Structures are given as C-alpha cells and as structure tokens.
C-alpha cells in the first residue's frame, strides 16, 4: 500500500467514527433520565396560565417550572402552600407533593394589568 493510499484508508475509517462520537456528544440527554420528579412547565402571560389545568396524583412529587413571557405574575394557592412570583427571564421552580385530592384554583396575586383579577388556573389532585 502506498502512503497516500494508506492515508485515504485511515481517514475513511476514522472520519465516520469521529463524526459518530461528535454526534453522540451533541445528542441532548433525555430529560430526567436520573428518575427525578416529573417537570410540568407552566407559562404565565397576561392574563392566563398555559396550560390552565394540570392533573397530579395525590402523593406524587412534581416540579412546576413557572415561566413568564411578559411581566411579573404571581402564583398563589393557599391550600397547597404555594405563594410565588414569576419574574420574566427567571423561571421559578416549585416542588409539589400534594397530600389531599381535590380541585385547587391557583390565582395570579401580583397585579399585572387590566384583567389580572381573572388570571387563574386549576390544579387537580386525583386519588
Ligand atoms: Cu398575572 Cu396578575
């Protein structure tokens, strides 16, 4: 084998391997492969939460990740001991482990504009 042929052979073999290595590094890890709590992302935006209803099992640990798309909103539900502000640009994380089944209305308790009083969502806790 001539040196130039040898080089071509090595490159042809090494390049795909190098590419595979780069690709596997670039592949995002599956979220929460560590078996951590389920994460529910909730977006706050004048004057609604999205989704506006979530369902959690009683005794299930979940992480709520609250994100504002515009101004500061509140997130308040006394019975579930939730009282947070949601600042734009900074996600607020809450870990919940509800021990009581029921339907809980969570309100925005930080004034955010004309329809602030109607901004709410429902957390349903099922047995
Ligand atoms: Cu959102 Cu008040």
Please outline the helices and strands.
Blueprint (H helix, E strand, L loop, with lengths): L2 H24 L11 E8 L2 E3 L2 E5 L4 E7 L4 E5 L4 E5 L5 E5 L5 E6 L12 E7 L1
Parallel strand pairs: 1-4, 3-9
Antiparallel strand pairs: 1-2, 4-7, 5-6, 8-9
The chain binds dinuclear copper ion.
Number of helical runs? 1
SSE-based structural type: alpha/beta
| Envelope shape | globular
**Which regions have little confidence, pLDDT < 50, spanning 5+ residues?**
15-30
Helical residue percent band = 10-25%
Major β-sheet, in short? 4 strands, mixed
Order of helices and strands: HEEEEEEEEE
Which ligands, by name, code or SMILES, are bound? Answer: dinuclear copper ion
Q: Kindly state the mean pLDDT as a whole number?
A: 84
Portion in strands:
35-45%
Rg over CA atoms, rounded to whole Å, is 24 Å
Task: Please state how the strands of the largest beta sheet are arranged side by side.
Answer: 2-1-4-7
Total E-strand runs: 9
Termini separation (Å)? 72 Å
Textual characterization of the structure:
The chain has one helix and nine strands; from the N terminus they run H-E-E-E-E-E-E-E-E-E. It is an alpha/beta fold. The chain has a four-stranded mixed beta sheet, with no helix packed on it. The protein has a three-stranded mixed beta sheet with strand order 3-9-8, with no helix packed on it. The longest helix has 24 residues. The chain starts with a helix and ends with a strand. About 13% of the residues have low confidence.
In a few lines, what is going on in this structure?
This protein has about 130 residues and is an alpha/beta fold.
């Amino acid at each position: 084998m001539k040196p130039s042929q040898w080089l071509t052979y090595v490159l042809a073999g090494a390049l795909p391997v190098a590419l595979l290595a780069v690709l596997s590094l670039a592949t995002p890890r599956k979220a929460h492969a560590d078996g951590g709590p389920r994460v529910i992302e909730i977006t706050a935006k004048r004057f609604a939460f999205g989704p506006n209803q979530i369902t959690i099992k009683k005794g299930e640990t979940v992480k709520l990740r609250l994100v504002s798309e515009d101004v500061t909103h509140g997130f308040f539900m006394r019975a579930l001991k939730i009282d947070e502000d949601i600042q734009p640009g900074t996600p607020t994380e809450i870990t919940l482990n509800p021990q009581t089944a029921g339907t809980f209305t969570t309100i925005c308790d930080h004034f955010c504009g004309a329809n602030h009083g109607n901004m709410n969502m429902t957390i349903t806790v099922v047995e």
